[in-house]
Structure prediction request, 152 residues.
Amino acid sequence: MRAKLAADSQLDNSDITISSNSAVITLTGHASSTDARSEATVAAEAVDGVRSVFNQLAVSPTAAAVGAQIDRAEAHTAQGASDLWLTAKVKAAVLSESQAYGDVTVSVHSGIVALGGTLDNPRYAIPRLKAMIANIDGVRGVDSSALEGGAK
Prediction:
């Protein structure tokens, strides 16, 4: 029985304890997924002489599933940190041109820079401002729709 469960690749990353009493099998421990839990029952029932199987396996995430959750969280955190850094770079560039762009607000999400506020000469200033920001490393796009008189 143990060899049959150990050979089943669907049960990889599961921790299963098998006990038997008068051809009644009890499975305890942890299965890596609900499918693995079901497969353990099927595999145990397939053993000659087994009358019934009590599956008391708890389902716990595999290391791979936990790793994937960590990777997603890390990517989200990295994007947030990247957006904060990019916001600082864009604000510094805007402030360096403070006479032309003194009342401009900046926010960044996933590398897209959103500009707001008012400009004295939007027809001239908006294209120049967008071009300047677009040349900053990491900027994926510039949205000037919230600038007063802004072209999109």
